[in-house]
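Appendix B. Raw example, untouched.
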Amino acid sequence: MTKDVLLSISGLQFAVKDEDDAEPVEVITAGDYYKKNGKHYILYDEVMEGFDGNTRNVIKLTDDYLDITKKGISNVHMIFEKNKKNISYYNTPFGSILIGIDAKSVDIAETEDNIDVRVKYNLEVNYEHLADCSITMNIKSRESGNFTLA
């Protein structure tokens, strides 16, 4: 994997009452990649419409663990570990939200120029179940030239 990568992050959130009302959210951006002590790190900046500045995102991956840290306009440290609930405050320009992430699966597949990540989790807000969610990520070397959407 090269230092310069393209990152695709796609997420689905299924409302508890109406699974047909799922709205996908997708981001495709350039980022930086490195591997240290057996962990993959992906760094990228995120711009929020209507606000000056940006949010720096750091994604840390191991074989069964996804860790996302956001610092800037929004601040949060989210940990996705299979069969473990992690709680954190998500600080936004609009206020803080207490979120709980209960990961049901964390699957990571790695090749020389590509990393695929699939996570299924339950999302809680203020200790109440809000939605069943999934995240799909694809991290690909920019020089590979065959970037496909997740």
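End of appendix B.
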